[in-house]
Amino acid sequence: MDTELRERRKAEFAERLREAQSRLFGYIHSLVRDLDDADDLFQQTTLILWNKFDDFDASRSFLSWACGVARLEVCNFLRSRGRQRLYFSDDLNLLLAEAQDETTHDETEERRTALAGCVEKLRQRDRELLDECYGREGGMAEVAGRHGRSSQSVHNSLRRIRRSLFECIRRTLDQRSRPRLIG
Amino acid sequence: MNTTPDLPDDLKDLIDDYLADRLDEAGMMRLEDRLRAGAEARRYFVAYCRLHTDLHLEMRARRVGERALRAIGEAAPPRRRLFASFPVKIAAAAAVLLAVGVAWWLISRPAPAEAPEVAWLVNAQDCRWAEDTPPAGPMRAGSVLRVERGLAEIQFRSGARVVLEGPAALELLSANGARLLRGKLSARVPEPAVGFEVLSPRGKVVDLGTEFGVAVGDDGATDVRVFVGQVKASAGGDPVSLKANQSAHLDGDGVTLRPDGDGGFVRAIVPPPVIVPRVLKLDFRRPVAGSLQDRAGRGTGLTHRLPGTGRRLAASDDNLLLDTDAGQLSLTTTNSDINHQFHMGSGEYLGVRLADLGFTGPEDFAVTVAIPKIPALKRVGQFGLYAGTKSDRNIRGGVISKKEPGQYTQFLVNNNGGLDTDVHFVGLSSVGDDLRLTLKRADGKYTLTVANETTGGSTTLAIRHPDFLDRETDLYVGLFGANTMSEERKTLVIKEVQVTVWTATPAR
Hints:
Helix content of chain A: over 70%
Number of helices of chain A: 8
Distance between the termini of chain A: 50 Å
Structural class of chain B: alpha+beta
Helix content of chain B: 10-25%
Radius of gyration of chain B: 31 Å
Number of strands of chain B: 27
Largest sheet of chain B: 11 strands, mixed
Oligomer: heterodimer
Structural class of chain A: mainly alpha
Order of helices and strands of chain A: HHHHHHHH
Largest sheet of chain A: none
Radius of gyration of chain A: 20 Å
Shape of chain A: globular
Strand content of chain A: under 5%
Number of strands of chain A: 0
């Protein structure tokens, strides 16, 4: 009986986490900007979420609850990390969690799908640069060094590519949602 | 729903700079102010960061996907430019061979009988050879040395010396060259042997007077690291020069310079050190002079408190009671918490200084304590073991009291700067259980084991490695007890404490 209840709770938790996880991960990544750090913090956060799942008020948004827990973890992490990097202050992190909560799971998924299509449409050279900067370990300085470019110039190229992808995703989503938005 | 707002360019630039970690403090403040001021800006920020995250995931997925396709020899029609290049063909061929499982055949081709002798074995350590290549006598060109594990050192006729690190396969080609089919080697090339060549499935490394390492992965991709001097590395295209401390990756895309890292090559066979454990065992059967004193002034055998703790406790500590007849030490908890450094002055964190057992920094160690019939602490009350340099620089673990009365869960947590990080919880113990706790550093990694001698279960927990302790040469270990966030104190019975440091002395 007890184990049955526990299993049911677990399934419920898994369901909610599945729905929120890509946005939760995105939230953490946007604050720490390092994929490995984000991985660790995401893992840590989900564990805490499960441990505290009994305290979760089902009438509230799971994502906003999760982002709240993540925020504290990020905060602890930053304090332990010292100041190697500059990070946002906590009050802004809270506002960003709210903005995160305004997005939906479906939209997030659609964005990812749209991105795959948009990357295909890029010029070969741009796709290769993305691959080097995003697909491998190692920083932009290294990519710049390999190509004998300044890191400012690589940064500028990346910015241009990202913005065109952003535009492309926006167009894709607009087209897809227009028929549904009549009225 | 998808109407992502458009923003002024300068704000977009700030966000791009933020993602690339290119903002200074003033820039960060400008961006923070703008994001605070507008919900539109925040929505854009969230969507744009989403793109940044997705790009990471997407590009990595593509890379892994392409590699997987290549490995099964069915790469979607490769771009012509690449297809024309020599290493890809080799790679494709190798991949096909791998796929049908006959790569071993390539490796174990018999050597022609009349082949010249080109090298001989000079040293081996913990070395296990594949069955059909007994390393007896001189070795001929064409023969393949296969080391399943351990190290083998081979001297070439030219004078070049190679340390092969198992699992590895090396094909001898000439008195001054070999092909590394798989695994790792490091080479030392004296003057007369300059020009020594190491081929790999993906390219070639030619020595120009040097010491270097080569590693070949299962997919044939090759890494080169130069320790001293210079080499030329090529993977189909023009050779690239590598100097001391440079590394490169050779694959279907050519030669790519890599960031620093020693690649973990074994450069010489060194006799293994003799590991001598040094043990301190306290059974509390007699007072020990010159150690921390109990309330009656008797020495407990524990010699040091964790620096930063216990400052306000009396020299003859009221919270300690040595019972030599029963062979136990009673420790009454106080209200303290390492997390947020609460009441460290009256905190009970006591043990030994590892340097007293010969610890100088790199040695592994362990501390064990037996605590029978654990008492009921209020929620978040905790006891267990620690290792660290001071109250806000340590790793600690043990059991912590849960919301449910009488229940404990095992935990392990890092603390670097006063706040707990990387905490993990596992398992369950109940009031009255007999526990044996061990905090151990083995191969440099920390684990906490709680053996519940009442239920017969045992759980070992590891967390993110506390790298802030790695270079410390003066560590303290010991036990602690705290009725954290409560004034209800309890008494722990400590039956046995054992501290071990595995000191190494070089073999003669």
